[in-house]
Hints:
- The chain has two domains: 26-160 and 184-361, Catalase core domain (Catalase HpII,  Chain A, domain 1), CATH 2.40.180; 420-485, Up-down Bundle (Hemocyanin, N-terminal domain).
- It is globular and about 75 Å long.
- The strands form two sheets. Strands 2, 3, 4, 5, 6, 7, 8, 9, 10 and 11 form a ten-stranded antiparallel sheet that branches. A two-stranded antiparallel ribbon has the order 1-12.
- The chain contains twelve helices and twelve strands.
- The protein has helices spanning 36-45, 142-149, 160-168, 174-180, 228-237, 241-251, 306-311, 330-346, 421-429, 432-446, 452-465, 467-477; strands spanning 23-25, 59-68, 87-96, 111-119, 122-129, 195-196, 201-204, 210-219, 257-266, 292-301, 324-326, 409-411.
- Strand 7 (201-204) and strand 8 form a beta hairpin.
- It is of the alpha+beta class.
Amino acid sequence: MTTNKKKLTTSWGAPVGDNQNSMTAGQRGPTLIQDVYLLEKLAHFNRERIPERVVHAKGAGAHGYFEVTNDVTKYTKAKFLSEIGKRTPVFIRFSTVAGEAGSADTVRDPRGFAVKFYTEDGNYDLVGNNTPIFFIRDAIKFPDFIHSQKRDPKTHLKNPTAVWDFWSLSPESLHQVTILMSDRGIPATFRHMHGFGSHTFKWVNAEGKGVWVKYHFKTEQGIKNLAPDIAAKIAGENPDYHTEDLFNAIEKGDYPAWKLFVQIMPLEDANTYRWDPFDVTKVWSQKDYPLIEVGRMVLNRNPENYFAEVEQAAFSPGQMVPGIEPSPDKMLQGRLFAYSDAARYRVGPNHNLLPINSPKVEANNYQRDGAMRFDKNGGGSVYYEPNSFDGPTESKENKTTSYSVSGIADSVSYNHDDHYTQAGDLYRLISAEEQARLVENIVNSMKSVEKEEIKLRQIAHFYKADPEYGIRVAKGLGLPVQKKV
């Protein structure tokens, strides 16, 4: 066994003590800005591609509106949700995750589901996926995860060995891997899939009372998926299949729509619920926290110019409005920084001045200069704060609500490390036919993995989720079952 492994270091050569957990103030965060290694990883990662997005490079978008259909004011003071019948303009961008800008639409991959609400309190971005969970639960692992999904630096080919090596060494990914390898891993179109905020967020009402919330967009078109052979055929014949389908549907007046539901959890339940509610690799049972209808989103207008609107669109989960706040979700905490930072690099520091990103209300701040500043740059007005010249000032009523934190500043994981129960529940929930397709998809994907130890390690995860799950994958690969990880 090799013992003289090279030490992982920062770019300035200092050894890294923990590459799995970001530093938080106590068990539940928030993440500390003093974790400079986390910031370095995320900032460097955002600058690894020029000029397309590092992830979600291939996508399509459309304009529409969101209409409130149910009174949720007892949960949130967000103005765009303040009354039934209220409509807010939206722009949504759908995307694949791992492929380049010229990649095929019909590959097995999660789909991005990013919604920009142009509200009267500024823009609110809900940046999610077509799955309610994710592969990892700490942002410090995100650059490594995406590297494993991207092209090998030597061969410039996709590398199944890297993909499954990372997953097998990150058992928290098992739930999402099961979804990805199921029928839902290849949606038939962008219109025929659900969307999710994925993370836990905080809603606050006019009295300052908060609740934890999860978002679910349910497609009115119904769920439809593609078989792998059909998806591969389409990828060769029409790699822009999903992009074309969305454009044509809207152009002919067949406007796609989704109903938005939320799950609401009282703040105090976070301390006693059987799953950590801030762990994005887990779902909340809808029996425990039923879906509550909020509204309906309709897409009814195509972009006039793809580059100006879809390509230059910038989304960040950190762009919130009063009544909506973050949670201690470690993955979300990292994204609050990373997404805006990516936009500053990819589009520029003044990306929010572009028409597709600019709010429908006047923005008043003291930000000046920067590349591509194309408005009046504040003119001759006061350019600092506080000041004695009637410049814009803070509104204390919109201050983010407080919550208590405790513990020591350290790199810590979540309390709960059961990565198998929910994945096993999902396996048992789907039909026998879909189980067979799930196993076949996994086997086909893992066949070309170079190291047997990686296959055996992953089989053990499947087995711990459900013995039959592991046995069937092992049999398909011609390998014995490894019951321990």
